[in-house]
Amino acid sequence: MLGVAMYTQVKTLWNLRKNKTEIAKLTGHDWKTVAKVIKAVENGIDKPSYKDRDSIIEPFRDEVIKLLDRGLSGIRIHQELKVLGFKGSYPTVKRYIKKMKKISEIFVRINTLPGEEAQVDFGYVGITRDDSGKNRKTWVFNMRLSYSRYDFYCKVYDQRVETFIRCHIDAFEFFGGVPEVVKIDNLKAAILKANFYEPIYQDMYRRFADYYGFKPLPCRIYHANDKGKVESGIGYVKGNFFKGRKFDSGTILDAGLAQWNNKANTRIHGTTRKVPANVFETEEKPKLGPLPDERFKMSRMGTRRVYHDCHIYVDYNYYSVPYEYVGRVVEINLSDDLLRISCDGKDIAIHKRIKDRGNFSTIDAHYPKYKKVAETEYREVYRAKMVAIGPYAEKLFSLIVGNNKQYWAQSIKGILSLRKRYPEKVIEASCKRAYFYKVKSYQIVKNIAVSGAYLLPVEEVGHEYAKVKA
User: Rounded CA gap, 238 and 438, in Å?
Assistant: First the structure.
């Protein structure tokens, strides 16, 4: 293939009556190549000829673009194309990818209206010292208003959802208003699945966005230009504030960052050639949405796996989930009074918080119908066995089952096993004492039988229970 520059260069020198050897020395090209160009010139060819080596891959153009968007390497793309029937070599693919990347690097600059958009991101800034003197991994959070380039920065020690939301709230209060759209990177803290077209938000972030009245918009994977403004802001703060500086405490870092933030907002911006603070005050701030009367109430959140018994374990208690979700991981959202359980962005169960420990909150509808029938029959079998021992054994059975609808069987089976060592009248007397003192443990019923405490009188006070200990 003869390049245009080389062809023009050789042709010019040949017309200046330089010989082939001189031209080869002057251009650095091989003598045979120079001779080939001169032959083309003598034959009256005005431009070099090209062998279209990309013609074999051109039919796969759309597929190459898709594979590039997925972030695949040239070797992987070549392998994928071969499956689709491509017969060319890897160098052909590599050369074509290089050409496509040059095209893809061309982008249309996105301009926004005042108050329309903010962009957010985290940037890792290394290890800093907190107020207790402990060295901590540290990130800087940046929210940048796209129109004015007005910035809010703060440092954080993690990228949890709660932290992400708190940074948003601080930024909105710093601006004195809320933009229409917040563009976010595909952060684990904000999005469960990195899918631009069908994002599945963690429940609390979605509720937070609804509360403040903005629309969260995730950036597409491998499309850095979607949030280029805030990435520029992250680079700016890392290079101009954090680089080469050490901080004796988190408080000192915060104060220094706030002071630097104010100066950064009063500089002339390199792209707009305007002062962000001036543009913000005169044009953008009046267009921001209002802040709510109260801050968003933060709730705890996390994930849990649903056990085979249709329950999840939260703060030493158990809460039921529809049986369809057994084995799956669900999201939990904890407020002071409620536990909200969701999956794939949809609420699947809501429970009142249990204040004690070791208890169950079970909704019968969460079990399949056939299981509820089988459970009822199973329970009645053991009720009959306790009835056979005596009336207080039956009452104790109801007490134990009522307290623990899912794990009652172990205690009842234990009590029934006492028949191997004691007469039923001893077990009945032990159950009587246990019942009146509201005992729901097999081990204590056993201790009553072993120690002979069933012979002691029961002090019946009030309706059913005594105030003395068993």
Answer: 64
